[in-house]
Design goal:
Layout lengths: L1 H7 L13 H4 L8 H28 L1 H4 L9 H4 L4 H22 L1 H19 L7 H20 L6 H26 L3 H4 L8 H25 L1 H5 L7 H16 L7 H7 L1 H19 L5
């Protein structure tokens, strides 16, 4: 039972919550007391709890559709390992614990957490069945993670951070929809109604648009934002972003698991190495003002 409960929280997808660290990463040149690092880590844990609750509710409501999916049918609720009653109770406990902890950590952060829960519920019950709004809502969830990370340490929310976050999130979400269409084919609408409105050529166009926009937005950020002006060598991280996006597109077209981006990033060694090197380069450049 315990194993099924933990699995239902989808720990593999908690990597999405690393966006919470973005605010801290790009303000390393500012003074941060040790408490800020502890708060950011606590915020990450809280969002893992809250997102886990959201995943459970989603799997309860989608258990019938998940049973026709080649991989989602193995999830605890869809497979029958975990009953809906126990799942509902566990989700409620997680929401109570997560929201209580979020307001104890920081009231403003708690408000962002509540808004994230509301967005997750809207997505789970309605928006995920509405073409285009489904991927936009997922992207908005990533933006709220980034906002939560800056809010908890009292940092100023950069518009550039929000733009880059929503674009890369749209890119990943669209690639996931494409993978679902390719893997499920004629069964796709049975799993998700809005998939009937999508097509691979249409999604390829949107993927290309968001990929190009992401690269352009990040390039403009490194050149013209306040952070970019203070750290001109930040533009040296642009090749990592370009390679990462190109590599991801390559894997999408090879059918290498874009339906599970959290696993794709970990299992594809070149992509994982690129992300680590990008983060390390950003940290070094931003943390050493006047030197790099």
């Amino acid at each position: 039972m315990i194993t099924a409960l933990i699995q239902s929280m989808r720990p593999r997808q908690w990597s999405k919550n690393f966006f919470i660290f973005a605010g801290l990463l790009f303000t390393l040149d500012k003074y941060h007391p040790a408490a800020d690092y502890a708060k950011t880590l606590a915020a990450f844990i809280i969002f893992c709890i809250l997102s886990g609750a959201g995943y459970i509710v989603n799997d309860i409501l989608d258990r019938e559709q998940d049973r026709v999916h080649p991989s989602k049918c193995k999830r605890p609720i869809a497979s029958g390992m975990l009953g809906p009653g126990a799942a509902w109770s566990f989700a409620a406990l997680l929401v109570l614990a997560g929201t209580s902890a979020s307001f104890m950590l920081d009231p403003a952060f708690g408000c962002v957490a509540i808004f994230y829960l509301a967005l997750t519920l809207a997505y789970t019950t309605v928006l995920k069945q509405v073409v285009l709004l489904d991927v936009i809502t997922v992207a908005a969830g990533f933006v709220l993670r980034a906002v939560a990370g800056t809010t908890v340490i009292g940092a100023i929310i950069s518009p550039w951070l929000l733009i880059c976050t929503i674009l890369i999130a749209l890119f990943i979400s669209l690639a996931k929809r494409r993978d679902e269409l390719e893997s499920l084919r004629e069964k796709a609408p049975d799993h998700r109604l809005c998939l009937a409105e999508y097509s691979v050529p249409f999604l390829d166009q949107l993927i290309n648009i968001t990929a190009s926009s992401t690269i352009m937005a990040y390039a403009l950020y490194t050149f013209f934002s306040q952070t970019g002006e203070e750290h001109p060598y930040l533009m040296a991280t642009l090749p990592f972003v370009i390679y990462g996006i190109f590599r991801y597109i390559l894997l999408v077209h090879k059918g290498k698991g874009a339906g599970s981006p959290e696993l794709l990033i970990i299992l594809d060694k070149p992509l994982l190495a690129d992300i680590i090197l990008w983060a390390a380069a950003c940290a070094v450049i931003v943390a050493l003002p006047g030197k790099l």
